Amino acid sequence: MRRAHSDRGPVAQSVVEGVSLSAHGPARPPVVAMLHGLEDDWQSWKPVTDGLGDRFRCYAIDLPWRAGGDYGWRAGGTAGQWVERALEIVPEPVSVVVAHSMGANAVLHWLTSGAARRLDAVVLLSPFYRLTSVPVDWPMFDRSLADFRAVMKAGLRARLGERAARIGPELVDLMAEKALDRIGPEGFLALFDQFISSSGLDLAANTVPTLVVGGTTDAGISGPRAEALGLAMPSAEIRLEDGLTHFCHIEQPHRVAELVAEFLLRTTPAFTKAGQRPGPEGATP
Fold first, then answer.
1. Which helix H or strand E contains 240, and what residues bound it?
2. Of 169, 187, 238, 277, which has the highest C-beta tally within 10 A?
């Protein structure tokens, strides 16, 4: 095990079979596992974990589709199987899973795989959901590829933050094109596979309280897609807001932290208003 650091002091980090994790928050439950999207990493969750304060024990997990990785992981298991492996390395029982984008779609597949352990809640940020009425044909492939390129560029701008304005749009576009060249077709196909198979998942049997968070202009989940996911997954509460972007965990982390905390405290009886599990006879230890 190696050590990482945050503004709260040392943070434990471990690495097992292509996935790694870092812990943030008090050494007590409830335990939240946070899963990033394609070409992202565990560090992007830090603004959200800071917003959650000391109410939750958060494990931000690096997955094999992390930024700078390769896509050999696809030969080692499905995205859902990688979610299972990631949760297995968390040294405490996981109560809640919070996942973004491809990580969120991977969780949807994991929930329907039969391998899902007991959870108190799931929060999915900006998942992609396909309408069954839209055929998987070449025009759809081309649209999806264009959307993928746009999302990857938006992700770069989100991670650059204020630096993007100082660098300038032309250089940011050049950086994005180089990143897309490095990701290559395999990265797109990994996400495309998650997208086109999403509408075929049997989500009706899911009993875990689920919150789906997204922006009203996020093409992957807004409008009819959100309605379709809500119908397919009755356990899910869909929350779309005008001010949220696809990379809301980076660009609007305080709002995301508010939505996560409010959902958990409202829907999960095991949590008290202090954000801790109740002790004997309902008392908070």
1. strand 236-241
2. 187
